[in-house]
Amino acid sequence: MADLLLGVHCSISGGLHNAFDEANQLGVDTFQIFTKNQRQWRDKKISAYEKKEFSDAFDSSAIKTVVSHTTYLINLASGKDDLRSKSEASLISEVERCTDLGVAYAVLHPGAAKDLGYDKGMEQIAMGLRNVLKATRDSNVMILLENTAGQGSSIGYDFNHLRTIMDQVDSDRIGVCFDTCHAFAAGYDIRSKEGYDDTFGQFDEIVGLEHLKVLHLNDSKGDLGSKLDRHDNIGFGNIGAEAFGRIMNDFKHLPKVLETPKKDDWDSKNLEMLRSMVNN
Ligand SMILES: [Zn+2]
Ligand SMILES: [Zn+2]
Predict the structure, then answer these.
(1) 181 alpha carbon to ligand 2 midpoint, in Å?
(2) CB atoms within 10 A of CB 14
(3) The dihedral formed by the CA atoms of 89, 90, 93 and 98, expressed in degrees to the nearest 10
(4) pLDDT in tens, 225-256
(5) pTM, rounded to two decimals
(6) How many CB atoms lie within 10 A of CB 114?
(7) What is the distance in A from the centroid of ligand 1 to the CA of 2?
(8) Positions marked catalytic
(9) Across the strands, what pairs with 178?
(10) Residue 149: nearest ligand to its CA?
(11) Which of 69, 225, 236, 248 is a Cys-bridge partner for 187, taking CB atoms 3.0 to 4.6 Å apart?
(12) Closest ligand to Cα 109
């Protein structure tokens, strides 16, 4: 089978290199990990031993791309100085871990504006990103801004937010990760061919498809425009299977990662479904 660049989010429980076992069992060629406990601030450096284990596993696997998802605690848009500097430090540490592991992309939720408001929030994010890129200037790791569902005051649900931040940072180490569930919950109706074409047309016009580096494939438990970030199995949510078939064929060249509920053997079922949609 040709490279599909399709995979899932893998667990690093018991060691970072264990993600390859899960990936190999599922027969995928791409996966996403957290490079540390994603619900804690505590950062860690990659030891020489971990680095070797990871690169050995990488070399002996069929994996083409590994993507990292940054911790959910990071909020570069925070109006609180201590939270903002903690967020920057954590993101710097993340980029360093990715560099050590040979992970190409670190996916980031842009941030939540809270009482600062969106414009000021985006300015803070851009400032934070510039600091992080400066502190890691020798790295090739790209930070990918993920579109969000728009829950609360989260920035990034509108493609224009991503463009504004990219313009302010002005670096080729910033790209975008497109999450289908988030886009749908934010009001982008990708269900029909017309809606799909319109959404990616807007994306191309505003963000630029050349900046799209990774896709998160999740169906949505929430309705169109619900702002609910609730992932569902492919074809079982409100988006439905059709849009995913289009993505599998239109974005063959980009890493695509499932973040669907990991119950029973749903990873296999979702993968099978997506693989069956690829036209040869
Ligand atoms: Zn995410
Ligand atoms: Zn989500």
Answers:
(1) 7
(2) 9
(3) -140
(4) 999 999 999 999 999 999 999 999 999 999 99
(5) 0.97
(6) 16
(7) 27
(8) 39, 69, 72, 109, 146, 179, 182, 216, 229, 231, 259
(9) 215
(10) 2
(11) 225
(12) 1
How far apart CA 187 and CA 238 sit, in angstroms, is: 12
Q: Alpha-carbon torsion 72, 78, 84, 86, what sign?
A: negative
Length of the chain: 280
Which residues make Cβ contacts (< 8 Å) with residue 176, sequence separation at least 6?
144, 145, 146, 147, 162, 166, 207, 211, 212, 213
* 258 CA → ligand 2 middle, Å: 10
Asked if 215 contacts 247 with a C-beta cutoff of 8 angstroms, the reply is yes
- Tell me the backbone φ, ψ of residue 217, rounded to 5 degrees: -100, 105
Cα 216 to Cα 196: distance, rounded to the nearest angstrom: 15
Where helices occur in the chain by DSSP H, the ranges are 18-26, 48-59, 81-101, 118-135, 159-169, 180-185, 193-206, 241-250, 266-276
pLDDT by position in tens, the chain (length 280)? 579 999 999 999 999 999 999 999 999 999 999 999 999 999 989 999 999 999 999 999 999 999 999 999 999 999 999 999 999 999 999 999 999 999 999 999 999 999 899 999 999 999 999 999 999 999 999 999 999 999 999 999 999 999 999 999 999 999 999 999 999 999 999 999 999 999 999 999 999 999 999 999 999 999 999 999 999 999 999 999 999 999 999 999 999 999 999 888 999 999 999 999 999 7
User: Where do we find the tokens 């990715």?
Assistant: 98
